[in-house]
Design goal:
Helix content of chain C: 55-70%
Number of helices of chain C: 18
Number of strands of chain C: 2
Largest interface: A-C, 57 and 52 residues
CATH class of one domain in chain A: Mainly Alpha
CATH topology of the largest domain in chain C: Cytochrome Bc1 Complex, Chain C
Oligomer: heterotrimer
Number of helices of chain A: 9
Strand order of the largest sheet of chain A: 1-2
Largest sheet of chain C: 2 strands, antiparallel
Distance between the termini of chain C: 11 Å
Structural class of chain A: mainly alpha
Strand order of the largest sheet of chain C: 1-2
Structural class of chain C: mainly alpha
Largest sheet of chain A: 2 strands, antiparallel
Radius of gyration of chain C: 24 Å
Chains: A mainly alpha, B alpha+beta, C mainly alpha
CATH superfamily of one domain in chain A: Cytochrome c-like domain
Number of strands of chain A: 2
Strand content of chain A: under 5%
CATH architecture of one domain in chain A: Orthogonal Bundle
Shape of chain A: globular
Shape of chain C: globular
CATH superfamily of the largest domain in chain C: Cytochrome Bc1 Complex, Chain C
Strand content of chain C: under 5%
CATH architecture of the largest domain in chain C: Up-down Bundle
Order of helices and strands of chain A: HHHEEHHHHHH
Chain lengths: 272, 184, 413
């Protein structure tokens, strides 16, 4: 057994050494986003419906001016998500104009009010990425998968610990950090957490910019937190269902393993 | 593998089994049953994935504006992947449909049972024979005629002659207003 | 235990059928009465685990193919459609994407077990080479599967791996164009990768059948590395002994698999692959999936393009020659103390290369990668051939029964 211990010790030393070698060369001139506490992280994590609704409000009033969100209106009804009512979603969808897939009888592609089955249309100002890039220098990304497509290096040993406490909210942390990272008052495009600090998106949030109706203080921190939570949901709407089923699956497998082990013991008992 | 003394001799355990064989059977049966439950619950997602998905379900009802359809016209709309006929019937067509004796019908149904408002006939445009799309204003009853095998439908969408066994199906629908109908 | 029975059909129908197609007898002799060395440890259960993983990958893969659209315009969106709208689509996709990782995890345990206990040695050379072929097919399949979601990392991975072929002198560029069906990775590439990704698993099944066949001809190796001398004393019947042990191991393995699928399903995926493929922008830091990292580190450690590719190919190809590179007549590492020391150094080299393959290239990282690459090749080309000639080994037991049973029990039988 000592042999194994020695090997693993050597392994740990090697990994740490290799990591030092790597880290030495990378200039550390910017802080990593801090790990936040989210209601939906971990094995028993669940979304806070009110927070998702506030996050959606921030998206609708601020982000949607430039960013697309390729989800269907109907998904906002999801009870594990924002949980808006059918009527609310219908009214919301109808307030958008969407382009019909097929031309009308006279052969014209036409606009019509949205239905719950439609996707959110692109921002009115930018029908496509090229238009956005032409106006802003860089096209604002589609936000539906933002919480999964952004990350920061957790580094050793944190990436090991993340396996055990099932922490998957690295992208959500990053979004929150960026939205609260505009710390130079005189430069709206300087961001503490953005690699290189020079970010294309000027500070989008101001205290009081969005009027919350549920008494939550209208601060930049809250906007950032709520919209990050909302984007965590849009990135993977099925995650609550996944965790529910997963818990049962793991308990089942543990029970079955224990039974299998007992059967194995019994069977092998007569293999003398 | 490291052999434990118990496994090595096996004496105590075989002895124990001799005393209580039912305990061993119970363990085997329990394990088998638990494994079977597991297999069954895994099977469901594998089957259910082929059912209509959320996108399809979201498109399962449509709203149609009736205002542009003149009396005598038939509008074909796409619903659940197939055609639906919305026929604005003329007074003559309504009268013909209502006057038909049930005895003349292969699949007897009164006209009243097939419409909510007499001037609007709404039927699924799929021939009940083998799924072709019938042509409107054709056949001797001026209803529909199926181009595939010649089934003839009347102005109530009822089968009158040809190989089709049933009337054109009436989908679930609701008038939201005088000129707006929701199908599905 | 009453020795190993052979299948005798009981009913008249079974006899009739067996006389025409003796498949029940084949299954019986292969998976019921087949004698298994009694001293196998839990490292021998990875064969069964791998069979299960292959079946899971094929079932979930066929299902995903029912919903996936292999076109550059639709691939990314169709994967998200599976994740969001298809009933249990997220479950099937996560079983498949994490299944690939757990398939490799199991295959690495299986390979290192074989290397530690000398399972590649006479008479199991063909068995071992079939295993190496399966491993290479798995890597090809996994690589092409990774391209299908058509994210940024899919595209970059496809570009980098196919560009390896441009290192071939004279015909390299032509070969690359042929692979791509164009002048760069694009729609035709995605389509053919989809077709091949669907095909290769069935070829793997074919080679697995040969692998199992070869195994059943020469019999299993065992931790003591001595051949079965007396079937009655040295072995137990496959069913129930090995079957139940394998099932237990499969269940335990599935606990870890389920943890990843349900609680950290994106842990092993790259964040950049949630951005749709864009041929005009390459991610700042390209990383293959973890199971290919050691080879990727070897590739990057060599400064010359052609030599890098040669080293990469050699690193895989050398595995097939292991039966002849290892000159020791003793099979099991259990009785070779010096071999054990070098074996663990080799394992550390592989893990270290894997870690470095995931990191950005820096001077010191490249230096460490070169040292570890030397360790990798040194073990295969220098240490194994020389060790067999010079090492001092411990006495090997005469038989399996002598190794595991206490003297009294062994004598009594």
């Amino acid at each position: 057994m000592n042999r194994f211990k020695a090997s693993f010790l050597a392994l740990a030393l090697l990994v740490t050494g290799a990591q030092l070698a790597v880290a030495q060369d990378a200039a550390e001139d910017q802080p990593k986003p801090a790990r936040q506490s989210w209601s939906f992280s971990g094995v028993f994590g669940k979304f806070d419906q009110a927070q998702l609704q506030r996050g959606f409000q921030v998206y609708k009033e601020v982000c949607s001016n430039c960013h697309r969100l390729s989800i269907a209106f109907r998904t906002l009804e999801n009870e594990n998500g924002p949980g808006f009512s059918e009527e609310q979603v219908k009214a919301l969808a109808a307030s958008y104009n969407v382009t019909n897939d097929e031309p009308n009888d006279s052969g014209k592609i036409f606009q019509r009010p949205g239905t719950p089955a439609d996707l959110f249309p692109p921002p009115e100002a930018f029908p496509n990425d090229q238009a956005a890039a032409a106006a802003m220098g860089k096209a604002p990304p589609d936000m539906w998968l933002l919480a999964k497509s952004r990350k920061y290096e957790r580094g050793f040993p944190w990436f090991v610990f993340d396996v055990f406490d099932a922490y998957q909210e690295v992208g959500t942390d990053y979004i929150y950090a960026i939205l609260t990272g505009y710390t130079h008052k005189d430069d709206p495009q300087w961001n503490l957490y953005y690699p290189g600090h020079k970010i294309a998106m000027p500070n989008p949030l101001q205290d009081g910019g969005v009027k919350y109706t549920d008494g939550t203080p209208a601060t930049t921190q809250n906007y950032a937190r709520d919209v990050a939570a909302f984007l965590s949901w849009t990135a993977e709407p099925s995650q609550t269902e996944r965790k529910n089923i997963g818990f049962r699956a793991i308990v089942f497998l543990l029970v079955l393993s224990a039974l299998m082990y007992m059967v194995k013991k019994r069977v092998w008992a007569d293999a003398h | 593998m490291r052999v434990t003394p118990r496994e090595r001799t096996g004496v105590e355990l075989s002895h124990a089994e001799a005393i209580n064989p039912s305990r061993r059977d119970f363990l085997f049966l329990t394990t088998g049953a638990v494994a079977a439950v597991g297999a069954a619950s895994v099977a469901w997602p594998l089957i259910d994935q082929m059912n209509p998905d959320a996108t399809t379900l979201a498109m399962s009802s449509i709203e149609v504006d009736l205002a542009p359809i003149q009396a005598g016209q038939i509008l074909t709309v796409k619903w659940r992947g197939g055609p639906v006929f919305l026929r604005h019937r003329t007074a003559k067509e309504i009268k013909e449909a209502e006057a038909t004796p049930l005895a003349d019908l292969k699949d007897p149904a009164t006209d009243q049972s097939r419409v909510q408002k007499p001037e609007w006939l709404i039927v699924v445009g799929v021939c009940t024979h083998l799924g072709c799309v019938p042509l409107g204003h054709e056949g001797q009853y001026d209803g529909w005629k199926c181009p595939c095998h010649g089934s003839i439908y009347d102005t109530s969408g009822r089968i009158r002659s040809g190989p089709a066994p049933l009337n054109l199906a009436v989908p679930e629908y609701k008038f939201l207003s005088a000129t707006k109908v929701k199908i599905g | 235990m009453d020795g190993h029975s052979t299948y005798v059909p009981k009913s008249a129908i079974a006899r009739w059928f067996e006389a025409r197609l003796p498949i029940v007898g084949l299954v019986h002799s292969s998976f019921v009465s087949y004698p298994v060395p009694r001293n196998l440890n839990y490292f021998w259960t990875f064969g069964a685990i791998l069979s299960f993983m292959l079946i899971i990958q094929i079932i979930t893969g066929v299902i995903l193919a029912m919903h996936y659209v292999p076109s550059a315009a639709m691939a990314f969106v169709s994967v998200e459609h599976i994740m969001r709208d298809v009933n249990y689509g997220w479950l099937i996709r996560y079983l498949h994407s994490n299944g690939a990782s757990f398939f490799f995890l199991a295959v690495y345990m299986h390979i290192f077990r074989g290397m530690y206990y000398g399972s590649y040695k006479n008479p199991r050379e063909v068995l071992w080479i079939l295993g190496v072929i399966i491993y290479v097919l798995m890597m090809a399949t996994a690589f092409m599967g990774y391209v299908l979601p058509w994210g940024q990392m899919s595209f970059a991975g496809a570009t980098v791996i196919t560009n390896l072929f441009t290192a071939i002198p004279l015909v390299g560029t032509g070969v690359a164009h042929w692979l791509w069906g164009g002048y760069a990775v694009g729609d035709p590439t995605l389509n053919r990768f989809f077709a091949l990704h669907y095909l290769l698993p069935f070829m793997i099944v074919g080679v697995v059948v040969l692998h199992v066949w070869a195994l059943h001809v020469v019999g299993q190796n065992n931790p003591d590395g001595v051949e079965v001398k007396d079937v009655k004393r040295d072995t137990v019947a496959f069913t129930p002994y090995a079957t139940i042990k394998d099932m237990f191991a499969v269940c335990v393995f599935f606990v870890f698999y389920a943890w990843f699928v349900f609680f950290i399903p994106n842990y092993l995926l790259d964040a950049d692959n949630f951005n749709p493929a864009n041929p005009l922008v390459t991610p700042s830091h390209i990383v293959p999936e973890w199971y290919l990292l050691p080879f990727y580190a070897i590739l990057r450690a060599i400064p010359n393009k052609l030599m890098g590719v040669v080293a990469l190919a050699l690193a895989m190809a050398l595995l097939a020659f292991l039966p002849w590179l290892d000159t020791s007549p003793i099979r099991s590492g259990k009785y070779r103390p010096m071999f054990r020391f070098f074996f663990w150094i080799f394992v550390i080299c592989c893990v270290g290369l894997g870690y470095l393959g995931s990191q950005e290239v820096t001077d010191s990282a490249t230096l460490v990668a070169r040292i570890l690459s030397l360790g990798y090749f040194g073990y295969l080309i220098v240490v194994l051939p020389v060790l067999g000639l010079v090492e001092k080994t411990k006495p090997v037991p005469v038989s399996i029964a002598d190794a595991v049973l206490p003297p009294s029990a062994a004598a009594a039988e």
